[in-house]
Specification:
The chain has 15 helices and 24 strands. The chain has 484 residues and is α/β, with parallel strands linked by helices. The longest helix has 18 residues, at 51-68. The relative contact order is 0.13.
């Protein structure tokens, strides 16, 4: 069955979604319904994998690894380009399906689906050649990169397809095979992509299984999975790390953040208000690197606040399938209730709310754009990662003070500095404890740009050759002629 949406005019596949195991379409007697967060109506059912089905997927990946690891770079490159082609051929349908299950408006869906295509094609160009460390006629020392084996990928609900591709592309390019688990809140795009991938890849190279927390636990404990690549909360990342210790699995963990933005006093507030707004509210703030604490120098604080409020009033929050929508709902009820609880706490604490506040009774998981005026540093809205459209705007007096306050968190994912003096901004950036610091820009990523967190925002790197190497073991071969 296919359902056509009247606004975008695109048929999206709402037939029975299935898992992909060993090149075959696999269903389950145990299913769950995916929900449209804008309407709270069911979209389609999807299977919940059993322990036995996971074992079959891992075994298929393990068998496929013996041949996939021997393929040459050209073969792997062609495979990744073929995966990109599959998304591109179904571009409009992926956009509609992504918005339907995740909630983001078309512009956000285009950013994610287009990004998935781009990432596959660019990672396909990457390789890790052998390094000759020494070759002096007596000794030859070579360091090479070898694939790990079966990779377990676990992805979140905020960017379900793009963050899956961030794992699939380097894993396969390095010669590994994969078992991928999408979030049970947004499984549909990934399951469909998994089916399309079977037209390109040999059986067992990419297996996509769906399920909840139990499935994630089984994967992190599975003795035949050699690495877990996980994106999600810091709390869950800690549990993943504990489970992975059972067989010393390799890990890449991209976890939570409480990212600061620092606005220096030399900026034009009206000129940067739009950029500051989207730094925080892109994807309805369901973004690990969204600005979650906005520090503004006291000299320009009032002007920045006024400009932000004026801009925010003109942003349309609605069902992402509507053409005029700029921000959609939160993706699921659990997150919606968490953000509502945070807003309730601010109300109890008497914080001055400049805009927004408590949600209305409308259907869907909609939270209004909320700006909070200079709450105390120990407020929940400052300390916690809201992962929803709530932004505390904080006043500071000097650079030493703001650096100390910006670094006063267990997180260290990303940050941004805004200044007319780039050299001065660079000095501040170097003092921040964050894996990525943007200056006069934000949310710029690339397949060639290393991305990873400091402190409790994760471990390991995604993207770039550094990220590709994380899907490899390093092997050193030393040789010398046999004496005669």
């Amino acid at each position: 069955m296919k359902v056509e949406h009247a606004v975008w005019g695109t048929a999206i596949p709402l037939s029975d979604f299935a898992m992909s195991i060993n090149g075959r379409r696999i269903t389950s007697d145990d299913t769950e319904l995916a929900t449209n967060p804008a309407t709270e109506e069911p979209i389609a059912s999807f299977p919940l994998a059993s322990r036995k089905q996971l074992d079959l997927a891992v075994e298929a990946a393990k068998v496929a690894f013996t041949s996939w690891r021997e393929t040459d770079i050209a073969t792997r490159r062609k495979a990744l380009e073929g995966l990109a082609d599959q998304i591109e051929k179904n571009y409009e349908a992926f956009l509609t399906l992504l918005t339907t299950e995740q909630g983001k408006p078309r512009a956000g869906a285009e950013w994610e689906i287009g990004g998935s295509i781009y990432w596959l094609r660019e990672i396909a160009k990457q390789s890790l050649p052998e390094e000759v460390v020494r070759d002096d006629g007596e000794n030859r020392v070579v360091t090479r990169y070898t694939p790990i084996g079966v990779i377990g990928g676990i992805t979140p609900w905020n960017f379900p397809l793009l963050l899956a591709v961030w794992k699939i592309a380097p894993a396969l390019m390095a010669g590994n095979t994969m078992v991928l688990k999408p979030s049970p809140f947004t499984p549909l795009c990934t399951l469909w992509f998994g089916e399309l991938a079977q037209e390109v890849l040999p059986p067992g190279v990419l297996n996509v299984v769906s399920g909840g927390n139990d499935l994630g636990q089984w994967m992190t404990e599975h003795p035949d999975i050699g690495k877990i690549a996980f994106t999600g909360s810091t709390a869950t990342g800690k549990r993943v790390m504990q489970s992975a210790a059972s067989n010393l699995k390799r890990l890449t963990l991209e976890l939570g953040g409480n990212d600061p933005a620092v606005v220096l006093p030399d900026v034009n507030p009206e000129a940067i208000a739009k950029d500051l707004f989207w730094a925080s509210f892109q994807n309805s703030s369901q973004f690990c690197v969204a600005t979650k604490r906005l520090y503004v120098h006291e000299v320009i604080y009032d002007r920045v606040v006024k400009a932000l409020v004026e801009y925010a009033r003109g942003v349309q929050v609605d069902n992402g399938l509507l053409v005029e929508s700029q921000l959609g709902p939160l993706q699921n009820r659990m997150q919606y209730e968490k953000v509502c609880n945070l807003l309730q706490d601010s109300a109890v604490e008497g914080h001055h709310v400049l805009l927004g506040g408590a949600p209305s009774d409308r259907k869907g998981y909609f939270v209004p754009i909320t700006l909070i005026d200079n709450p105390p540093d120990d407020s929940r809205c400052v300390v916690e990662e809201a992962f929803g459209p709530v932004l505390p705007i904080l006043k500071y007096r000097d650079v030493d003070e703001v650096v100390r306050r910006a670094n006063d968190t267990e997180y260290g994912l990303a940050a941004s500095i805004w200044s007319a003096d780039v050299e001065k901004a660079r000095d501040v950036a170097r003092r921040l404890e964050a894996g990525t610091v943007w200056i006069n820009q934000i949310h710029v990523f690339g397949p060639d740009i290393a991305f990873g967190g400091h402190k409790q925002s994760g471990m390991g790197i995604e993207n770039s050759l550094h990220g590709l190497s994380e899907y490899c073991n390093m092997q050193t071969i030393m040789e010398r002629p046999l004496a005669t």
